[in-house]
């Protein structure tokens, strides 16, 4: 069969430097359980990253030149989220191609003539990643990371049969307010060489959620609200892991106060952090001089069509969750009715620790924090990483074999 070559500009090289650019901010939401975290990674990951998909879409739209050279487009992200964690108001800032000249960009009247960044990128993204606002006129020196004044996280959890002492959890949470050393409430990343673990917490509270989905009559859904100026790696999940132990009565509320005292606990006791899925970066707050525009702020007919599509996507995601919740509830009833509890409970001599994932973890005996082994100090962990990096660099430069390649891989993963 003869191949028909379409006429047009398909084979024409796009000369990016011939087009004007502008610096913007993008605000977006994503459901994190299908992704390997926010940050794009240098090495392949089991699941795609949110940033990786957004950058790929930006390149496809010819809005940026490269998805790997982030310095070229002055790229910055507000709040890192790890695998499984969601966000409702994540922000990135970067320089992108523009339809307007630098002079035209200064006048907000011309915003209607600008490229429809929201629609262009959304058309190339999965439905569970949605850009919904753009800042076309950020203030001077705006940076998605360093211009953020507060980050607000929410962690949802269930008190099954009202088994958690939520009042004690709330009391413990409020001990974190103000400036505190959170070295015992985070995972230390040697590649960052962090020596200052002081972070300022603006708000910490636990409230009941008026849920829409099906739960048992005695089950209650709660949310832990935590707002601060900045956070350490896995800080929220570590905090939640401790709060759940308090809620179960396995630790007293003052364990938080004790862990914040680095004289009493100079090194972090070994414990499990809470599950990733219930955590969401709820909001990233900026000053009043950062003005955001959504699709409804644009008057073109194309914007109207995009609004309808955007609302449809949001409804479809909610509808999908609702239907799945109904089916999961039915499946739970079927399984539980076929496996009714007998008078003999093989787990009676064991302790089930609430980890936020619904499954929990069974322990033959719970070990209080004061009796647990502790991790190495951050000084030791930082030095160990530096030594590993040095070995990796030396082995690579000397043309080492498999061991050298492994050292390089480990160092790269932690960088």
Describe the structure.
Belongs to the tRNA pseudouridine synthase TruA family. GO terms for molecular function: pseudouridine synthase activity; RNA binding. One of its GO terms (biological process) is tRNA pseudouridine synthesis. Pfam families: PseudoU_synth_1 (PF01416). The termini are far apart. The chain has 415 residues and is of the alpha+beta class. The strands form two sheets. Strands 1, 2, 3, 4, 5, 6, 7, 8 and 9 form a nine-stranded mixed sheet that branches. It has three domains: 18-147 and 286-313, Alpha-Beta Plaits; 151-279, Pseudouridine synthase I, catalytic domain, C-terminal subdomain (Alpha-Beta Plaits, 2-Layer Sandwich), CATH 3.30.70; 378-414. The chain has helices at residues 50-60, 102-105, 117-122, 166-174, 235-247, 255-260, 301-337, 378-397, 402-414; strands spanning 21-30, 76-77, 86-97, 129-135, 150-159, 178-181, 198-208, 220-228, 279-285, 351-353, 361-363. It has nine helices and eleven strands. Helix 8 (378-397) crosses helix 9 (402-414). The longest helix has 37 residues, at 301-337.
């Amino acid at each position: 069969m003869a191949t028909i070559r379409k006429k047009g500009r398909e084979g024409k090289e796009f000369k990016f430097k011939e087009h004007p650019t502008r610096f913007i901010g993008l605000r977006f939401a994503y459901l994190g359980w299908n992704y390997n975290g926010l940050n794009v990674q240098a090495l392949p990951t089991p699941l795609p990253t949110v940033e990786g998909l957004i950058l790929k879409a930006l390149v496809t739209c010819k809005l940026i030149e490269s998805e790997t050279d982030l310095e070229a487009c002055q790229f910055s992200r507000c709040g890192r989220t790890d695998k499984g964690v969601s966000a409702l108001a994540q922000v990135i800032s970067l320089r992108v191609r523009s339809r307007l000249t630098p002079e035209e960009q200064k006048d907000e009247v011309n915003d209607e003539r600008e490229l429809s960044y929201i629609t262009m990128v959304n058309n190339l993204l999965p439905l569970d990643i949605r850009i919904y606002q753009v800042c076309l006129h950020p203030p001077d020196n705006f940076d998605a990371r360093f211009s953020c004044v507060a980050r607000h996280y929410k962690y949802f959890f269930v008190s099954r049969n009202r088994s958690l002492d939520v009042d004690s959890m709330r009391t413990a949470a409020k001990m974190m307010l103000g400036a505190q050393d959170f070295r015992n409430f985070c995972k230390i990343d040697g590649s960052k060489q962090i020596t200052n673990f002081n972070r300022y917490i603006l708000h910490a509270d636990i409230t009941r959620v008026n849920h829409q989905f099906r739960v048992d009559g005695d089950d209650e859904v709660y949310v832990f609200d935590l707002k601060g100026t900045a956070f350490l790696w896995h800080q929220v999940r570590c905090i939640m892991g401790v709060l759940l132990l308090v809620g179960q009565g396995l630790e007293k509320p003052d364990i938080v106060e004790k862990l914040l005292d680095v004289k009493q606990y100079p090194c972090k006791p070994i414990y499990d952090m809470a599950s990733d899925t219930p955590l969401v970066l709820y909001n990233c707050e900026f000053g009043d001089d950062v003005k955001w525009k959504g699709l409804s702020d644009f008057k073109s007919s194309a914007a109207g069509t995009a609004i309808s599509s955007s609302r449809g996507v949001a409804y479809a995601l909610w509808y999908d969750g609702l239907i799945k919740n109904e089916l999961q509830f039915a499946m739970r009833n079927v399984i539980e009715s076929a496996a009714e509890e007998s008078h003999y409970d093989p787990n009676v001599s064991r302790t089930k620790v609430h980890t936020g994932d619904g499954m929990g973890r069974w322990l033959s005996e719970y070990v209080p924090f004061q009796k647990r082994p502790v991790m190495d100090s951050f000084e030791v962990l930082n030095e160990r990483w530096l030594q590993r990096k040095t070995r990796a660099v030396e082995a690579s430069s000397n043309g080492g074999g498999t061991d050298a390649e492994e050292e390089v891989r480990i160092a790269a993963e932690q960088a």
